[in-house]
Write a structure and sequence with these properties.
This protein is α/β, with parallel strands linked by helices. Helix content is 50%, strand content 14%. The protein has eleven helices and nine strands. The strands form two sheets. It has a six-stranded parallel beta sheet, with helices on both faces. The protein has a three-stranded mixed beta sheet with strand order 7-8-9, covered by helices on one side. Helix 4 links the parallel strand 4 and strand 5. Helix 4 packs parallel to helix 5 and helix 7 packs across helix 10. The longest helix is centred in the C-terminal third of the chain and has 24 residues. It is elongated, with a radius of gyration of 21 Å.
């Protein structure tokens, strides 16, 4: 892979930031990859796993000289971080992100950066309930999808530069509006996370030994960082609340079928779910 960037700056070298850094260095996408971590121990961890050439505890140092900057903090802090680094970015720098919420992040970062840098929203659909750069080697970006969310103000050259990053990492890129992205991710990621948390909250003392493979598979994501997921949920609160109400209505409907002992309707309810699952899993 031909070098595409002089320097990539990763703001928040955790799970996804670390995976991007590892991939970019391996593929030779940049002459240098640097990072920012708020905590010194996290900065040392990022450097020790090889995610970055150098990692700093001051965001300005990772922004200086970076023609591409990747925001990898929580969605609620990205606009503030963009504003903090804006004056340190080189002229013409491109800034993107990895947040799973786009409408608020795109609007906030575009406003924060103003004319000092060009922002393009991104969301690589790869992750884990784990956290930290030490676990970034487990994240497989290649052959995954990255959603890019340009809007009417997006610079075409910046869009191509960000597309080049993700494709250089072996990812397939698709484009959605920020609003459509948030609606889709509410259904496919954010609702499942809150539903998994609710299922775990149903457990009572002594249930643990009876939580077999099915329960563990369905609730795996509930182990994710509660702080991060609070930010995600609130950042996408309108779309998420709407889909949660729809889920609650379906569950209430299923409970009514049980009360009525409506075998045929209950079977249809389960068949619809099974059919949708086969659709997304290729028939498996």
């Amino acid at each position: 892979m031909t070098q595409q960037f002089d320097q990539i700056g990763i703001m928040g070298v955790g799970l996804i930031g670390g995976a991007v850094g590892l991939g970019a260095r391996s593929a030779g996408l940049a002459g240098r990859v640097v990072g920012y971590c708020r905590r010194p121990e996290a900065a040392r961890e990022a450097a020790s796993v090889g995610a970055v050439d150098d990692c700093y505890t001051e965001p300005a140092r990772a922004a200086e000289g970076s023609d591409l900057v990747l925001l990898c903090t929580g969605p609620g802090t990205m606009a503030g971080l963009a504003a903090e680094i804006a004056d340190y970015l080189p002229e013409g720098a491109v800034v993107t992100d990895v947040a799973s919420v786009k409408s608020r992040v795109v609007a906030g970062c575009v406003e924060a950066l103003g004319r000092k840098a060009r922002f393009v929203g991104s969301h690589p659909l790869a992750g884990s309930e784990k956290r930290g750069a030490a676990n970034s080697t487990e994240i497989v970006l290649a052959d995954s999808i990255c959603v890019m969310t340009p809007n009417s103000s997006t610079d075409p050259e910046a869009l191509e530069a960000v597309r080049g990053l993700w494709r250089g990492l072996g990812m397939e890129t698709v484009e959605l509006s920020p609003e459509e992205h948030d609606a889709r991710l509410a259904r496919t990621s954010h609702v499942p996370h809150l539903a998994a948390a609710a299922l775990c909250a149903l457990l009572r003392e002594g249930d643990g030994p009876f939580c077999a493979t099915g329960f563990r598979d369905v609730t795996r994501v509930a182990a994710g960082d509660p702080g991060m997921w609070t930010e995600i949920a609130l950042s996408n609160r309108e779309a998420l609340a709407s889909e949660m109400y729809k889920l609650a209505k379906r569950l209430q409907g299923a409970a009514d079928l049980l009360t009525a002992e409506d075998r045929e309707a209950l079977r249809q309810f389960l068949e619809e779910g099974a059919a949708r699952r086969r659709e997304i899993s290729g028939g498996e």
